[in-house]
Amino acid sequence: MTTTAAGLIGLGLMGKPMAQNLLKAGFPLTVWNRTAAAADELVEAGARRAASPREAAAAADVLVIIISDPPAVESVLHGPEGVLAGLRRGSVLIDSSTVTPDLARRTAAECAERGVDYLDAPVTGGDWGAKAAELVFMIGGPEEVFERVKPIFTALGKKFFLLGPHGSGQTIKLAMNLLLAVEVDAFAESLAIVRRAGLAGEKLVEVMQSSMGRAKLLDIKAPLMLKEEYTASFPLRLMHKDLRLALELARQEGLSLPAAEGAYAAYSAVKERSKDDPDYAAVARYWDRK
Asked: Active site includes 173?
């Protein structure tokens, strides 16, 4: 067992298997989640349950947070029971949430005031990658900090891209999710044309998979869309949020992104109509097969 004390805040689709992998790697682990019951299985496996984000931070040499959106991250970081009130001088905060580059830079500055190092390190790989410890990390921050905490990363993932100063990881993550969202939406539109014309969607996939149109993403998402089964490995509500953040970043940079705007409208419509919490492949529901 390593002597580095780890902490993890956020035990959702991604965070819970990440916590399990930290335990498997031998890290003493403290966890916190807004819904306390989400930690029960981890506590049974040897983790310690913190009573607050502050307590989780105070117990950790390296604290990982992976939370749904910027307001949730802000709420966990700040206040008398927040992470920033508990982090010890010399510790490291790794934020694997998907937030704005500006929030990453502000958090880095707040950490520096407390003698704490910070990395923005959002991930890709879906819940299957989290379970298999095969996540890909996009990292913003100093290389020497990454090297100090590399054992934490290697317990969680398989590839680690050091992309530049604080905020760089979040910028690349938003740009990449924009691409994934548009790609799945484009396939959904192609599928809608084929089905409306009275042909089986499988025919489109058969040809696409033998052409330049093949993509690893669609190897995974196309079967879901053909079967219309959308159990979430990455929820549509989170992809919708990431598209919004990407479009906000583009506007800050003076860019117009027409394809992303169109995709955002489609995801917005499906999010509004969905009664469940589906995978983002459910953007194919936009047409309702009418």
From this structure: yes
Residues 61-78: pLDDT tens digits? 999 999 999 999 999 999
Contact (CB, 8 A) for 275 and 247: no
- Return the CATH number of 6-164, one of 3.40.50.720, 3.40.1350.10, 3.30.1360.120, 3.55.40.20: 3.40.50.720
Q: Which of 173, 221, 241, 271 is labelled catalytic?
A: 173
Q: What is the bridge-based pairing of β-strands 62-65 and 117-120?
A: unpaired
CATH of domain 171-287: 1.10.1040.10
Mark 11-48 as b/e (b = at least 16 C-beta within 10 Å).
Answer: bbbbbbbbbbbbbebebbbbbbbeeeebbeebeeeebb
> Would the pLDDT of 123 be above 60?
yes
Please state the domain extents for the chain: 6-164, 171-287
Copy the structure tokens of residue 92: 């490291």
- Report pLDDT digits (tens) over 42-57: 999 999 999 999 999 9
